[in-house]
């Protein structure tokens, strides 16, 4: 049966130490669509720089990512575990830049942090920078901590439903699908 839906782009942002979580978020979005898309008249489109950014020269790599996908993202899901990521020259990491710009645009941003134990060898400068960033974010919103991947995936689906129903930015899009 054909139905109309508003497509919301969901950017999955993270350093490279949470590849499994990135896949789980993508899968959770597909599962959410299969169950809820028709009910909410919303289709969530997972976007990642690896799949939605073409090779391009002439600008900072992060600026190319921002222009190609971040600016069109309605929702950003940030994920961290042991790394903050690579410095962009303007921000502590590409993921931090994406999150900061997304928040500055007053768009929906959710941050998930893995707090499962890490081997002492992974307590590096990257991990210490991440801990500083987490302390900076804490007064600005609600962070979600997880230590089990199946629970993490379920939380993503549950939180997407809550956001679709309750978030002011998303509600404005859904109530005004064709802004002037």
UniProtKB/TrEMBL annotation:
Entry superkingdom: Bacteria
Protein name as catalogued: DUF4062 domain-containing protein
The species this protein was found in: Acinetobacter pseudolwoffii
């Amino acid at each position: 049966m054909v139905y109309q839906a508003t497509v919301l782009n969901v950017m999955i942002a993270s350093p490279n130490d949470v590849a499994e979580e990135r896949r789980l978020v993508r899968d959770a979005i597909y599962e959410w669509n299969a169950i809820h898309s028709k009910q909410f008249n919303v289709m969530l489109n997972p976007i990642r720089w690896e799949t939605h950014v073409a090779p391009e020269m002439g600008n900072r790599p992060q600026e190319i990512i921002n222009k190609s996908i971040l600016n069109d993202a309605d929702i950003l899901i940030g994920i961290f575990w042991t790394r903050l990521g690579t410095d962009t020259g303007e921000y502590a990491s590409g993921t931090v830049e994406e999150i900061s710009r997304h928040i500055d645009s007053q768009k929906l941003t959710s941050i998930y942090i893995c707090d499962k134990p890490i081997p002492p060898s992974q307590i590096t400068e990257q991990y210490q920078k991440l801990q500083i960033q987490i302390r900076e974010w804490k007064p600005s919103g609600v962070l979600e901590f997880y230590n089990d991947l199946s629970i993490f995936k379920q939380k993503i689906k549950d939180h997407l439903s809550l956001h679709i129903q309750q978030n002011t930015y998303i509600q404005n899009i859904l109530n005004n699908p064709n802004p002037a």
